[in-house]
Amino acid sequence: MVTLEGEFRRDVEKIQSLEIVPSMLELICRTTNMGFAAVARVTENRWIACAVQDEIGFGLKPGGELQLETTICNEIRGHGQPVIIDEVAKDKYFFNHHTPKMYGFQSYISIPIFLKSGQFFGTLCAIDPKPLPLKAGNMVTMFNLFADLIAFHLHNQDQQQAKALVLNKAQQDLAASRDDVRQYEHVSRHSLQEPLRKLQVFTDMIVHDVSLPPEHRVRDLAVKINRLSGDLSAKINRLNELADMQAAPEKFTKVDLQEVVANVLIGLRTGIKSRQAVVTVHSLPVVAGIAGQLEIVLYHIIDNALRYSQGYILPIIDIFADIVDAGSIQHAQVGTQYRKYHKVCIRDNGIGIEGTHLEKIFDLFVQLKPKAHVDSVGVGLSQARRIMRQHDGVVLVESVEGKGSVFSLLFPVIVQDEDH
């Protein structure tokens, strides 16, 4: 193939890469009895052969050029219409045309190739020294179909190249993101935690310094600094837990929420006993998910129901489930690909949440109530929402201040269970 520069070289390579083109050109020559067929790239100043079937020694190879002004394809580029000549000597438009005289052909057919964008690419053309009945039969229809097929494959190539560029960019972004995560992990696990640890050690030394009076102001400040550095260290650890959960997704399996809740209640038995809470668990569904993550979700919500209980009323926690239609779910970003959802509810009679704060409770490190009510870093509900999103579900809350709250977990109903 003749060496070409830049864009024209790429155009020739595109046509050369289409496996169908050589067979197409050979079929054209066999069907029409013409000796030369080609796919040409035609621009306002170049005519370049992209693929060639030459059985008459015309002399062109892929990448070869004809002077644009000597071709009929140049005129086709201007008017965009096919040109078919059965016999030049008898054709009233082309009997004296300079192109047949220069190249010595009598029969000629050339069909414009338009890309899907509407841009003119070039032509599918064929010539022969002898006259041939090209206008009769289905010759023109065949050429038009072949030209459309070439345009389709070129469009498909462009789409594949665009997708490859997007994928390559995504891979580069992912590599950069992973490097950022690596740096974040190093900073969060070492660079930030180490000074906090030393700060706690030094403040501990001050707190336990026997030379200071018991009520000395320095000791009080050291206690506060120690507590704040401990809180910050705990928050960093929880952020690392969230990052670890995102970085290492597991495969979904069938998860029996009845078993998950049973495990959670075992873990919370000390808090349940100390508050004399009454926990009632009704029949719960089997859902698609990751058991360990769903245990985290239910642990945080049930634990909050215990923590935010009203001191003068025994905590009552009711856990139940139902199946609801997607269209009946309000105020939730649920996927349209699911018709029904398992709605798992955790209802309590705790202190409740003010209406304006219902969305804030899912933000990181948000604690809307005084420390007297809860000892946590404010990550649990944010983590629960993230996990539910990974399960194509959502977590909702309804609450009346002073009367309690209902947290609802919405899980998609898998297709094979929808009729049960």
Verbal overview:
The protein is elongated and about 115 Å long. The protein starts with 5 loop residues before the first helix and ends in an 8-residue tail after the last strand. By secondary structure, it is α+β, with helices and mostly antiparallel strands. 43% of the residues lie in helices and 20% in strands. Helix 2 runs antiparallel to helix 5. Mean pLDDT is 84; it is low at 370-375. It has 3 domains: 6-161, 2-Layer Sandwich (Beta-Lactamase), CATH 3.30.450.40; 192-248; 250-417, Heat Shock Protein 90 (2-Layer Sandwich), CATH 3.30.565. It is built from 11 helices and 13 strands.
Key words describing this protein structure:
420 residues; alpha+beta; Beta-Lactamase; 5-stranded mixed beta sheet
Query: What's the total number of strands?
Result: 13
- CATH class of the largest domain equals Alpha Beta
CATH superfamily of the largest domain: Histidine kinase-like ATPase, C-terminal domain
Average per-residue pLDDT, rounded, comes to 84
Main beta-sheet strand count, sense and barrel state: 6 strands, antiparallel
What structural class do the secondary elements suggest? alpha+beta
CATH architecture of the largest domain: 2-Layer Sandwich
For the termini, the CA-CA separation is: 66 Å
Instruction: Briefly note the CATH topology name of the largest domain.
Output: Heat Shock Protein 90
Order of helices and strands: HHEEEHEHEEHHHEHHEEHEEHEE
Query: What portion of residues belong to β-strands?
Result: 15-25%
Strand arrangement within the widest β-sheet reads 3-2-1-6-5-4
Helix content: 40-55%
Low-confidence stretches: 370-375
The dominant shape is elongated
Count of helical stretches: 11
